[in-house]
Specification:
The protein has two helices and six strands; from the N terminus they run αββββββα. With 110 residues, the protein is of the alpha+beta class.
């Protein structure tokens, strides 16, 4: 889907806000040991074991990039959701799975 830079930033900011709210709720409700840091188009989740998940804006490509212990992924917007450009997995469900695999914590963003 072709979108303007403004539309792109709005969509990614919504995703980042959803992630931040869900992680903050998980910290409050489950006493989860996660540090969350958002700055300069990067959202970083740091876990108790020292591992991190990094989510960042790739404005020139209008993508969201996700780096986990298990690999790096690039997500493009199809008009409704963000999908991986290689294997077509959906961003939010992939992020939920990645957090669980990497930290043992269960999170749902919906």
């Amino acid at each position: 889907m072709k979108m303007t830079d403004t539309e792109y930033h709005h969509k990614v900011d919504e995703v980042f806000h959803t992630i931040e709210n869900a992680v903050e709720a998980m910290i409050d409700e489950q006493d989860a040991d996660i540090d969350i840091d958002a700055s300069g188009g990067v959202l970083e989740l740091a876990f108790e074991d020292g591992s991190k998940i990094v989510i960042n804006k790739q404005e020139p490509l209008h993508e969201i990039w996700l780096a986990t212990r298990f690999g790096g992924y690039h997500f493009g917007f199809d008009g409704e959701k963000w999908y991986d450009t290689r294997n077509q997995c959906e961003f939010i469900s992939h992020l939920e799975d990645s957090i669980t695999k990497q930290s043992g914590l269960v999170i749902k963003f919906s």
